[in-house]
Amino acid sequence: MSQDLFEAARDAMAFAHAPYSKFPVGAAIRADDGKIYTGANIENLSFPQGWCAEPTAIGCMVMGGAKKIVEMAVIAEKLALCPPCGGCRQKIAEFAAADTRIYLCDETGVKKTLTMEELLPLSFKTDLLG
Ligand code: THU
Question: Which of 37, 45, 83, 102 lies 20 to 30 Å from 91, alpha-carbon distance?
């Protein structure tokens, strides 16, 4: 992974709205249009209404007109590794391929690389709805 994706995820974390958990998370996607789309977690006083960094980045990507995640980086200030939560895995999978690489980072860089298939084995898939 090139440094720009890591730096984008790390910089995105600064935009987290996490007054309740005080747990900022940043995500960055390199999309099929070659651009980087970023996101941070956005919490809400009504706690279940908040959402994670990954869907913020996915929303930016979709609204930017891109269709596929080429690679993605995730970072959390307070965790050495921040594997995306279960719901985020399904959301990422919608726009990724089995071999799409997901980078788990700390403030120094990439600490672990996983493919989408490793991150979400046996994922929900069907042709019946497509
Ligand atoms: N969070 C993320 O942004 N991504 C994840 O994959 C895990 C959790 C956020 C949600 C919440 O704002 C905070 O981290 C604490 O759970």
Answer: 45
Cα-to-centroid distance, 46 and ligand 1 (Å): 15
Q: Is the Cα dihedral 112, 114, 120, 121 positive or negative?
A: negative
Pocket of ligand 1 (CB under 6 A): 18, 21, 23, 25, 41, 43, 50, 52-54, 84-85, 88
- List the chain domain ranges: 2-128
Ligand 1 mean position, distance from CA 53 (Å): 7
| CATH code linked to domain 2-128 | 3.40.140.10
Do 102 and 113 form a contact (C-beta atoms < 8 A)? yes
Q: What is the pTM of this model?
A: 0.96
